[in-house]
Amino acid sequence: MKAFTLSLVSLNYTLITKLTAAMLVMFFVTGGANSKESIEDTKMTYPNYQASSNSPILTDRETGIKASFANHATQAVFYASDPWPLFGSYRVGRETITEFGSEIDSHVLLVVTNKESKGIYTGRILKDDLPPKNVVDTADQGGRVISTGSHFNVDLKAQCRIPGKQGKYWVVVLLGKLASPVLEFEVK
Predict the structure, then answer these.
(1) pLDDT in tens, 10-24
(2) Are residue 98 and residue 25 in the same domain, yes or no?
(3) Could you report the per-residue pLDDT of 13-59, keeping only the tens digit for each?
(4) Using one digit for the tens of pLDDT, what is the confidence trace for 110-160?
(5) 167 within 8 A of 116, measured Cβ to Cβ
(6) What is the DSSP string of 18-65?
(7) Is the same domain home to 126 and 50?
(8) Judgement on whether residues 73 and 60 belong to the same structural domain of the protein
(9) Are 8 and 40 found together in one domain?
(10) CB neighbours (10 Å) of residue 122?
(11) Domain limits at 16?
């Protein structure tokens, strides 16, 4: 019986050590509670066009639109009284530039669907009093813009005028023919 108790204590110690190590790795991988990224994003006002550590990455040669929650997550849990931040990036080619001109942001549409009620909420990423945004243009040898891109960060609840209602939601970001992957979030 003494050997059995000793082996249980040893097993528990090993499990606790491994779990603690795993939790520490997760803490540092996700940035930790007091990381620069989490502090930076809690001070952020929405909407804005700032690139942040949470902004999805598109290469100079990649076109499309991407969105994510904090730490590049595809799922999130928010509280009804807090902001519901969504981070996005887009890069479009000549076809989209020709179609929409230089005012691409006015064509970026946020679509949020309540999974239970099927209620749909929409909004744009624009706000009239925003400072100039960081636009990254890529030009050919003749100086013609062949692609352009930017970042956007929004509070889904405010931007889409969603009542702070508990439930599960989907969100997708649309720009012309482009669509981000569908993300899911829950409001408690």
Answers:
(1) 434 443 334 333 333
(2) no
(3) 443 334 333 333 333 333 333 333 443 454 678 788 888 899 998 88
(4) 999 999 999 999 999 875 544 455 566 666 777 777 788 889 999 999 999
(5) yes
(6) HHHHHHHHHHHHTT-TT-HHHHHHHH--SSB----TTS----TT--EE
(7) yes
(8) yes
(9) no
(10) 14
(11) 1-30
Contacts of 114 (CB under 8 A, 6+ apart): 120, 121, 165, 167, 168, 169
Distances (CA, A) of 93 to 3, 32, 151: 70, 37, 16
pLDDT score recorded for residue 103: 80
Total of domains in the chain: 2
Q: Is the dihedral of CA 102, 103, 107, 112 positive or negative?
A: positive
**Contact status, residue 38 vs residue 138, Cβ threshold 8 Å:** no
Q: What is the pLDDT of residues 147-164, one digit of tens each?
A: 888 899 999 999 999 998
Sign of CA dihedral 157, 159, 163, 167: negative
How buried is residue 100: exposed, middle or buried, by Cβ count under 10 Å (0-12/13-18/19+)? middle
